[in-house]
Write a structure and sequence with these properties.
single chain, HU Protein, Chain A
């Protein structure tokens, strides 16, 4: 599901709210999570999962096309771990 689909679905579920207000809420939600991660904080949404940052050290990789050795710089990546409730819901799908 993409952001516009989420906004559309929420607009249908909550017809008493203005579409623009729902759009601002969703955008604020995404922005808040992004800013928290950018500051190095962990974001946990109970029942859904947790977003955190992991540091990857610099290493020597290999270009899969040419086989040539390539230096890969150190970087920070976003890690997601699904919550217990989400995992159980996914495992009960028929």
């Amino acid at each position: 599901m993409i952001r516009s689909e989420l906004i559309k679905q929420l607009s249908e579920e909550y017809p008493h709210l203005y579409h623009g207000d729902i759009e601002r809420i969703v955008n604020t939600f995404y922005l808040t999570i992004s800013e928290a991660l950018a500051e190095g904080n962990r974001v946990e949404l109970r029942g859904f999962g947790a977003f955190s940052l992991k540091k990857r050290e610099a290493r020597v990789g290999r270009n899969p096309k040419s086989g040539e050795l390539v230096n890969v710089p150190k970087k920070v990546v976003i890690s997601y771990k699904a919550g217990k409730d989400l995992k159980s819901r996914m495992n009960n799908i028929d």
